[in-house]
Amino acid sequence: MSAAAVARHRAVFVSDVHLGSKNCHAAELAAFLDGLQARRLYLVGDIVDLWWLAQRRAAWGADQHRVVECLHELARAGTELIYVPGNHDRPIRRFCGLVLPNMQVRRRAIHVLRDGRRLLVTHGDDYDAITHFGNFQERFGDWLYDRILAGNRLTNLARRRLGLRYWSLADFLKSQSGAAERYIERFVHAGLGDARRRGLDGIVCGHIHRAALREVDGLVYANDGDWVESLSALAEDAAGDLVLLRHDGGELARLPGRAPVAAAPRLAQAA
Ligand SMILES: [Mn+2]
């Protein structure tokens, strides 16, 4: 029996790694992946930061190599890798539908929990259009973010002149407190609305660099966080509980799985 078949976790979700950017904690991620036993590993977008890799300042050394190696090792050990690209690795969306042994690229996925509930797995940038409104500062921040993500050379030049090494949405949100909370709530509800419209029981996403695990109106909202600041991942353990994990294995939050629905009593056979 392969290691993955007797895994501790039914599934693990990781996003917003930003591999290639100076802000990625690649060593911690490699250590986390090294000890991982999972049947399935979802890479929920912004895994490789292609915007950074396109620049000479890209950070790519032994730790970054080790992350890629760990992913290969997991696939070899039988873990099924499902890559759902985000906005920093958007070009990889061209490969959506690609299925390799133990590796798939999907625009979005559905994860079925042990208790049968089905969760939408998507990066979350699809909700930008819904969440991006509000006061001027928010709009300016979003505009700046989009320009940077778009790799606009003039913006990058301006950014360098201003001494901004990396414009972080998380930092921006923190600097806004009240606006940040409103932004996050809009994001949560946009995601949950999408899941509900698809007839699903919740969502697993990333993108906003805010780890979270909670139930809202009977739906699951899980954000696996990032490897820039929170260094967190989401897991469904062997018992079917959802767990928000810190890189060192510490537990940030837990949402117990539901008792499986009892089989409906058999109807008496007509005589
Ligand atoms: Mn993103």
TrEMBL record:
Q: Which GO terms describe its biological process?
A: lipid A biosynthetic process
Name the UniProt record assigns to this protein = Calcineurin-like phosphoesterase domain-containing protein
- Pfam entry (one): Metallophos
Q: Enumerate the GO terms in the molecular function aspect.
A: metal ion binding; UDP-2,3-diacylglucosamine hydrolase activity
| Keywords, comma-separated and alphabetical | Cell inner membrane, Cell membrane, Manganese, Membrane, Metal-binding
Presence of the UniProt keyword Cell inner membrane in the record: yes
Start and end of every Calcineurin-like phosphoesterase domain? 10-210
Query: Which Gene3D superfamilies does the record associate with it?
Result: 3.60.21.10
Q: Could you give one GO CC term from the UniProt record?
A: membrane
Q: Which organism is it from?
A: Arenimonas malthae CC-JY-1
Alphabetical list of InterPro entries matching this protein: Calcineurin-like_PHP, LpxH-like, Metallo-depent_PP-like
